[in-house]
Structures are given as C-alpha cells and as structure tokens.
C-alpha cells in the first residue's frame, strides 16, 4: 500500500538578491501551500536569494579585477544564508508551524571553520518538526557557476527519513525527491 503525499512546488521568483524579502516571501508560500493541504513544500535551486544569472549574460564576469562583478558578488555574499543561522531558524519555524517537510535551495555563506569565506550552492531539508535533517552542498558547480560556488564534499548526498517518506538529493543537481 502506497502513501499519497501532496507536494507544493514553488514556481515563483524570489526577491532577487534581497535575503530578508525573499525569506518573507518563502514563508508566505509555505503557509499558502500548507493551507492547501501540502505536506511537502519544495523550492528551486538557490531560491534564497536567487540564482546568479549574470554569470551567463555578462561577458566580462570572469575578469579578475572587474568592478561590476565584484560589486554584484559582494551583494550575493551579503544576501547568502549562514547555516545554522537566523534564516535557518525562520525556515525551521515555518516548517514546524505549518507541519510540513521543507526542501529549499540556498546560496550558503560560510563565516567560520572549514570553508570560511566560501559560497556554496546548497539544499536544506527540514522535517515537519523543524529539525534540519540534511544540508547538501552541490558537489560540482558547472561551467560559470565555478566563479561563484565552491565544490561540495558529498557529506549531504543522502536521503533522510521524513513523515512523507525518504527525501534526498540527486547527483544531477540540488533537487529534493521522494
């Protein structure tokens, strides 16, 4: 006998490069999905605070001392999520308050310890009790993504048990799946 799970897939843009506003928007989507009966809510890759699309559209993005790239990178870094931190506490509370499993892609900023100063393309999985069940860093950023993100170590490349079943990270990217 299989269990039916109602999944809410957020197909909306964040408030690009504005972590606080994007987080508020994410929580409202989580609440809306839960009101509609979703038990699992998922967001896309680097939803907080948005994907650095300039990498593929700015021809000088890879130049070593190019001021516009330095400015936008600094803004991305400033608006990236620290794990654990204030933003993960808010996401944890949203999962708990709405009794949902939450999977969300983030730009992660490391501020101490191994990887200090590095940005990662990460995926967080929270249980419906608000516990951070998995923290996966994309293993190999592709092509121009290497200008922004460090390589993950594979520690979060696993499936975790949730109330909805096993949820994990696919090798082909940061995608939550059952």
Describe this structure in words.
The protein is an alpha/beta fold and 178 residues long. It has one domain (7-177): Nitrilase/N-carbamoyl-D-aminoacid amidohydrolase (4-Layer Sandwich), CATH 3.60.110.10. Helices cover 26% and strands 22% of the residues. The protein is built from four helices and eight strands. It has helices at residues 19-35, 54-57, 67-78, 86-98; strands spanning 7-9, 40-42, 101-109, 119-126, 132-137, 159-162, 165-169, 176-177. Strands 1-2-3-4-5 form a five-stranded mixed sheet. A three-stranded antiparallel sheet has the order 6-7-8, with no helix packed on it.
Tag the structure with descriptive keywords.
single chain; 178 residues; alpha/beta; Nitrilase/N-carbamoyl-D-aminoacid amidohydrolase; 5-stranded mixed β-sheet; 3-stranded antiparallel β-sheet; 4 helices; 8 strands; globular; disordered C terminus
